[in-house]
Amino acid sequence: MIKFSDYFNDWLYGQDAYYSNYKQIGKDGDFFTSVSTSPFFGGSIAKKIIDSIESGFLPANTTILEIGAHHGYLLADIIQFIYTLKPTLLETLNFAIVERFSNLQEQQKKYLNDSFGDVIKLKHYNDINEVKLQNAYVLANEIFDAFACELVYTNKENTLQQAFVSNNKIEFIDCIEEDIINHCKKYSITKGEVALSYKDFVKTLCENIDTFEFLTFDYGDRYPRNDFSTRVYEKHNVYPIFEDNLPLEKLFKNSDITYDVHFNYLSDCFKENGITRIKFNTQLKSLVEFGILDLLEILKANVNENEYLRQTQNVKVLLEPTGMGDRFKTLNIRK
């Protein structure tokens, strides 16, 4: 019997695990992301990066660091839009990726080299612990929902219980871990996910980079739902973790598992490191603030109407208030 966090971690990162091999994202994969929806997602981030440099917060030779880049599509979109909007920056900017799997590093290197050749300077890190930089613009798209979490539940006797797994069966046992108990008391969590590993990640980031702007997009909200959000994605089907007769032994390592991010806790992890410049928003508001609508106006002046309408429709999916636009949240942080 193992803790649910160990089971979750083995599912995504263990031997022959889901993330250890390249997976398609989009129509042919298990799920969609904002990156697979429209290149203007990366374009709006590129515009934000340019604004951060032109305002003087970051230097022109800063490093754009992506954590968990999958195939490299987001970084490629950002580079392409920087080339369109401010091409001289590519002469000074540095690019880096944190990626634990060597086979994915090779995929990323090949894709970015095929796309841009030696125009960009790219470095890989195996872990955030290896990163030592004076300044950086750090991107983390949908990574916190892939940090191992515990499942907790308060029973009828008002006792906090913690999930354990044996033979792909989940059962709850009285929780005896003080850090989990204290976390649940602090945030009034009676049922749901607890991901204490955010704290060490944020601490390492703050210690290893002197000045940074950090941007993350993820499912979730400020406050915990006090319900289980853990779910499995397989070929665009979504299965709640406690769905009746869910074949965990079949889905284990062969599908994606995720949950909603608790953004207030993530914000507090940065505050514990002395950071107060923290901005929480919906994806809709962030992308509009970054200038995604301005980019569409530039597009309109340079392509035919059919292409403009096609790209506009994809951007609408990113911004839809009842869909991605509100379901995804952002944290924009400056140290």
Structure, described:
With 335 residues, the protein is an alpha/beta fold. 38% of the residues lie in helices and 26% in strands. The chain is built from 13 helices and 16 strands. The strands form three sheets. Strands 2, 3, 4, 5, 10, 14, 15 and 16 form an eight-stranded mixed beta sheet that branches. Strands 1, 6, 7, 8 and 9 form a five-stranded antiparallel beta sheet that branches. It has a three-stranded antiparallel beta sheet with strand order 12-11-13. A hairpin with a 2-residue loop joins strand 7 (160-166) and strand 8 (169-174). Helix 3 crosses helix 4 and helix 7 (198-208) packs parallel to helix 9.
Give a short summary of the structure.
By secondary structure, the chain is of the alpha/beta class. Helices cover 38% and strands 26% of the residues.
Fraction of residues in β-strands: 25-35%
N-end to C-end Cα span = 41 Å
Query: Tally the helices: what do you get?
Result: 13
Low-confidence segments: none
| Rg over C-alpha atoms, rounded to the nearest angstrom | 20 Å
Q: How many strands in all?
A: 16
Give the overall form: globular
Please tell me the overall pLDDT.
94
Can you give keywords for this protein?
single chain; 335 residues; alpha/beta; five-stranded antiparallel β-sheet; 38% helix
